[in-house]
Amino acid sequence: MKQISNKLISAIISLALMAAVIGSVPAIGADSVIIEKNTSAMYDIKDYGPEFVYDYIVPDAAEDEIVAVLENIKQISDEVTANTDDEYEIICTLDNYVSNLIAYDHDAAHNDVSFDTICLKNVLERNRTTCAGYSNLFAALAQAQGLYCVNIRGSAPDSQIGITIDNLADENTPINHEWNAVWYETESRWIYVDCTWNSLNSYENGEFSMRSAVTTYLDPDIELLSLAHKADSVVYRDFFSAAGAYFENEMTAAVPPNVTTTVTGAVTTTAAVSQTTSVQTQTANSSREAVADSTIAAKSNNNTRDASSEGVKNLPAIIFFAAGCLILVGGVVYALKSPRDANKNDKNDDDGSSEG
Q1: 198 close to 104: Cβ distance less than 8 angstroms
Q2: Taking CA atoms, which of 56, 244, 282, 314 is between 20 and 30 Å from 330?
Q3: Does a structural domain hold residue 305?
Q4: What is the three-class DSSP state of 275?
Q5: Would you list the DSSP string of 6-59?
Q6: Is residue 78 within 8 Å of 266, Cβ to Cβ?
Q7: In whole angstroms, what is the distance from residue 310 CA to residue 291 CA?
Q8: Contact 139, 240 (CB under 8 A)
Q9: What residues make up the domain containing 340?
Q10: Considering its fold, how many domains does the chain have in total?
Q11: Are 119 and 187 contained in the same domain?
């Protein structure tokens, strides 16, 4: 009877330990404040008109050069998506194209970023840019297929400027990243795309390093996106209207319902964009990979990257959790050990066969 009581006590202790361990495992999920911010941002889209778009195509250019760049964009977009009819497949195909073609330009990010770095003409000619250039190119290629695609500016984890996943929800975090959202009319929803973080290509010290792209940030759900992206503003760059009537009625995008579009005739100067993008492009390739690593497990069908410090920050709690499971199982098995063994031991004690 004493042995049975000891076993029950052991099982109870194991259960208590298990409960404590479970309680110590932190919840892994996006901050509700960030989710709300990312959701509400999509209902307030700014459209600055053709004057705002010119320098994103080619800086200080005449209309004929702008038309030439857009013709090239249209031709590339048509060729890349020639075998795809479904809108969703078109989005996936364009993400794959941009993410595999373009390299992240560390040299530009470490020095000065201007329209020269991110404009469509130079991104295509050089095959390198920063995050604003990735999203700029993707948006233009998507619009060439009649898709309503916007550019989202916001914050993302970057150790160089002190932004982490833990403090991303704080107010006034620096704007240091840019990504896209495409309106998917078939399902009446936004599809988020971050070609910068899907791309593993890099350009540094004048040399390219090319690796196959991942799809972690191709149509992530809002919670996965919000783990490492916080929107500040959403902009629609109507590239093809910048060429006047040249492309008129050639591409008609389905505008999302219930969206407030603020039309402004503001003209953006190169100096103004340099000030914004210089912060946006401080997120280097290592930061892109580290943040992607920390969230990649949340979408099981995506490719994986090397583990990062953010990605394993919950490892101690997980180890203790596993240990608690083993202890619990061992305790229960011990407590429920066959009564026959206990009776056998008692009998041996009665027969004087045990030591001592």
Answers
A1: no
A2: 314
A3: no
A4: helix
A5: HHHHHHHHHHHHHHHHHHHSPP-S--HHHHHHHHHHTTEEEE--HHHHHHHHST
A6: no
A7: 7
A8: no
A9: 2-25+315-351
A10: 2
A11: yes
